[in-house]
Here is the input.
Amino acid sequence: MFKSSPTALHHLVPVVLSIAVLIPSSQGGQCWSMMSRPDRCTESLRTNVTREECCSDGSATTAWSPKDLTSGDLFFWMSLGGGVTCKACKVSCEGVRCGKGMRCILRKQRPACVCSPACSRKKRQMGEVCGSDGRTYKHMCRLLKRQCRKNKQLTIEYFGKCQKTCDKVHCAGRKTCLLDQVLRPHCVRCQGYCARGSIGEYVCGADNVTYSSSCHIRQAACAKGKAVPLAYRGKCKAGASCENIRCRKGQSCLIDPKGGPPRCVTCPNQCNVPKTTMLCANNNYTYSTWCHMIQDACKHGILLEPKYEGPCEETTSQQTNIIPLNVFDSQDHL
Here is the structure.
């Protein structure tokens, strides 16, 4: 058997090291969703990937760094070190795939996807429109652009400026103007026929009128031009109270301080707070949303309804003794 001498092993070590250097490492680097500032990344997409794998998604913002970091290193560099040194995958719009209604442009010498919905001259010349978000847009194209930027579905409620009543709203076709629960007008297609099978499924409206079905209460709302809330299921009762009516599972019974029928209401657990939907309730407090107003109503067991959209005027002497939970302080109204 051949025995290697110490001298022979000494000559083999540099050869082994040279081979190790020549063999490419199979370990990849770090893929990032975007660069937070020039040459720095903080939002990790994938780990242990090659540059080719990372940059194959066609995104304008993806970046890559050659070193695959441990979770501890990632935490340090992302939270305390100002980000990891990285390099953008794309330096031009070549190969960049933007979504529908978007196009690639160079912004500060970097590719970026911007909203550019297809919009004809005719659409621009149709004039102002009121969007489903309650905003007035100069023309339809502006609405489409905001829809793209905010990544949410927007529709045209009606042509012209957004209104607070149905008086000046002109609905297209056979649609009818109807005020919703926050007194905002909408153009809706009223149901002209209620199925015979629905008759007998009586409901009591907030106007203390018995309707043959939920369909019939919607028909009445269209005729009145204002939503008729459903108070409770079944025929309206004389002397109805929260003690003698039954609400569905998950609903709470609220007392109407104006003497109307008790109201079965689904109480929300959580509410989003878009500040554009503030409203003034009949307790003269401003709520960030209709949802928050209902939360307060459920907390106290007393029905609250909107007086008008927007913050309440400063009339603290007229405020009720109901302690609100979800109202804006006066400085938040500014």
In short: The longest helix spans residues 6-22. Confidence is low (pLDDT under 50) at residues 7-26, 316-323, 328-334. Helices lie at 6-22, 51-54, 71-80, 121-124, 140-150, 214-224, 290-300.
